[in-house]
Design a protein that fits this description.
- The complex is a heterotrimer of chains A (110), B (96) and C (221).
- Chain A is an all-alpha fold and 110 residues long.
- Helices cover 58% and strands 0% of the residues of chain A.
- Chain A contains five helices and no strands.
- Chain A is globular and about 55 Å long.
- The model of chain A has no long low-confidence stretch (mean pLDDT 94).
- With 221 residues, chain C is α/β, with parallel strands linked by helices.
- In chain C, the strands form two sheets. In chain C, strands 1-4 form a two-stranded parallel sheet.
- In chain C, helix 3 crosses helix 9.
- The longest helix of chain C is centred in the N-terminal third of the chain and has 15 residues.
- The chains are: A mainly alpha (110), B mainly beta (96), C alpha/beta (221).
Chain lengths: 110, 96, 221
């Protein structure tokens, strides 16, 4: 019996390589920075291996529907919650706060 | 390198095992025959690091070359085409 | 990936002032849950004293300095100096340091294109890439199509990029499955015998250091 996880896609059929690229948005660079600073040898709060495993565990549907940095922040956040670095409550409150701020900035056009 | 099981030039087979969980040996190469080209140091085991453990003791890592025609039944390119994959020692068996 | 909602380009950096910069680059697009999550996590780890605002800013700015031009400089120097090339093939970190480039802790190995072998790099399992030497990878390198097909039909993928490798040259695909990253040293184009390093550097494209293209030829410049 062979098990192939969704991310392990070498050799599968696929269409043409769409040669898209984009300049990275600041939020994407921020995700990159978050995972980098939390996985320094001095801190070792997260490791690249844990982050990869967390992405693999997102499951096929989520994996395909999220873009690259959405997968990374999903994995990082799940790990931070598991490790107790942040609590569910803190995260929820902060996300609500950020969303309210951004919505207000947008509404006032600032 | 006396501590490592394999040397450059050794014929090896990738174990045809399919454990669930975080594994860095791609599924398509399992059970395939290749040749070690280089020992590239020993490192903490990523299969353990992925679950928050320290991955010790370190495991030897090798670059292993495979003929494309040996991996893909319908490979259309020339017979000389190859792939090289970094594989940990515990995924390899000696081939005679 | 099934969609990408960041197709608009915006090459300029916005303010990195924490704790909460607005993002005018997504003014017309909805902000997604993950964007909010990223901002929230960034603020929380600063508030908790785990990292400082300065360190976050420095990390973003540092990654902005990583771009293909660094690798291009390395390659051009290998074309001019065989002993430097030998050092690059032995130890990219030390050789890069000679040019003032610090590639950090993740090892990068250089693989040389020759008359007999053309190399191309992929990470089928995720998207490992020699970012500290050539910057962040393009979207297509991380795409399902590239990760699936390059390992099994490299010549067809290269054709998608307009690159044809003759049948008498081996195409060797490298799957970076472990901690090593790979950078291709493209072959020096013909007709560049008296070119200086600066002109040669312009011929070395990011795609030639991934292996989907050759270095540019003089006629195209």
């Amino acid at each position: 019996m062979t098990i192939r996880r969704h991310h392990d896609m070498g050799g599968l059929d696929a269409g043409a390589v769409e040669q898209t690229e984009h300049d990275y948005a600041i939020w994407e660079k921020r995700v990159d920075a978050i995972v980098k600073v939390l996985s320094t040898p001095e801190r070792k709060i997260l490791s690249t291996d844990e982050l990869r495993r967390g992405i693999e565990e997102l499951g096929p549907g989520v994996y395909d529907n999220l873009n690259y940095y959405e997968r990374w922040i999903s994995s990082a956040t799940n790990l931070l919650l598991e490790k107790g670095v942040i609590t569910v409550d803190e995260l929820g409150a902060k996300m609500a706060d950020v969303e309210a701020r951004w919505q207000k900035d947008r509404d006032t056009g600032s | 390198m006396s501590e490592t099981k394999y040397q450059a030039g050794d014929a090896v087979k990738v174990r045809a095992a399919f454990p669930p969980g975080h594994v860095r040996t791609p599924h398509f190469i399992r059970g395939c025959d290749g040749v070690v080209t280089q020992y590239v140091g020993s490192h903490p085991n990523p299969e353990e690091l992925a679950y928050g453990r320290d991955g010790m003791p370190k495991k030897p890592l090798y670059r292993v070359k495979f003929n494309q025609a040996d991996v893909w039944p319908n490979y259309e390119g020339p017979a000389k085409d190859t792939m090289v994959i970094d594989i940990y020692e515990h995924w390899l068996e000696k081939n005679q | 990936m099934s969609h990408d909602d960041h197709d608009h380009s915006h090459g300029h950096d916005h303010s990195h002032d924490e704790p909460h910069p607005y993002q005018p680059d997504i003014e017309d697009a909805p902000f997604t849950e993950r964007m909010v999550m990223a901002q929230a996590v960034a603020e929380l780890i600063v508030e908790k004293g785990i990292v400082s605002t300065d360190e976050m800013r420095a990390q973003i700015e540092f990654m902005d300095t990583r771009e293909p031009a660094l690798g291009a400089k390395l390659v051009a120097r290998t074309w001019l100096d065989p002993e430097f090339k030998a050092r690059v093939l032995t130890d990219v970190k030390a050789a890069s340091a000679e040019l003032g480039i610090d590639i950090g802790d993740i090892p990068i190995q250089a693989i040389e294109n020759t008359e007999d072998v053309h190399n191309v790099v992929v990470c089928t399992l995720c998207s490992c890439y020699p970012r500290m030497l050539i910057g962040l990878p393009p979207d297509w390198y991380k795409s399902r199509a590239y990760r699936s097909r390059t390992i099994k039909e490299p010549r067809k993928v290269l054709e998608d990029f307009g690159t044809t490798i003759p049948d008498n040259v081996e195409v060797r695909v490298h799957d970076s499955t472990a901690d090593l990253r790979y950078v291709v040293l493209p072959a020096r184009p013909a007709g560049t015998d008296d070119w200086n390093e600066e002109r040669l550097t312009d011929l070395v494209t990011r795609d030639s250091m991934i292996g989907v293209s050759l270095a540019k030829s003089p006629e195209t410049t």
